[in-house]
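Methods — Computational structure assignment.
A single polypeptide chain was analysed. Its primary sequence is given first, followed by the predicted tertiary structure written as structure tokens.
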Amino acid sequence: MPIVKIKGINISYKVEGQGEPLVMIHGLGNTKCDWMLQTPSFSRHYRVITFDNRGAGRSDKPGGPYSTKIMADDVIGLMNFLKLEKAHILGFSLGGMIAQELAIQYPERINKLILASTFCCQDNLLNGHTPELFGALDLRLKGKAGPVTRLAFNNSVNRIVFTILNTIHAKLENKTDTIGLIAQKEADVNHFTADRLYLISSPTLVITGTADRITKPSSSAQIAQLIPDAKITEIDGGSHSLIAENKEAFNRKVLDFLETDFLRLFY
């Protein structure tokens, strides 16, 4: 995979397909392999750019602190290197938080914005991660990834299949280490854009699964309420890992949003 140095950090990236650029930002503790069920479909229509966030995969894994603003600057650095004046941005989970910062800090660089399985702040009510995730993350930091994966999927067969596929792909990458995971976790739990989402001017689609056990589905409703004219669409019974377990519905909704007028009603 090609590597580019951005502000002293090596970032591993991949470009597939032709057309308008679509930058996809993966979630906490994972790599660009997260998008293996999207890139074959999306790259038939768009120039798809995937990459490993700092702290993950083949990108550098410096110690923290990280923030979603710092990680958004990494994305802008990659876009500058690739000479992308503007791009569609798709962010999943932690990637959705990074995407929010991108749209707030660099509105002129964003075409359409898609935020999936994510939140704008962590509180004890409607927003942020579910309580059961934090215990699972603590176990993951001790080298036990299973509990987080179980929460991400609602169907055990889907979880097993995806785990096998992801393991095969991840062996081609350098897995996220403890230093990178801790730093990314800090960026995740300290993320706060609730007071600035009104600044987002890009056409925005928010996607959530109604049975997400990692991020409270009500978080998506809050985001859609705070971003001017944002649309929200739900996948009934959908898990946190919409991009894998509910890939057909997820991919269809993303392509529909990118390819049609923003005012179209969503199913």
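Note: Strands lie at 3-6, 9-16, 21-25, 47-51, 87-92, 110-116, 204-209, 231-235.
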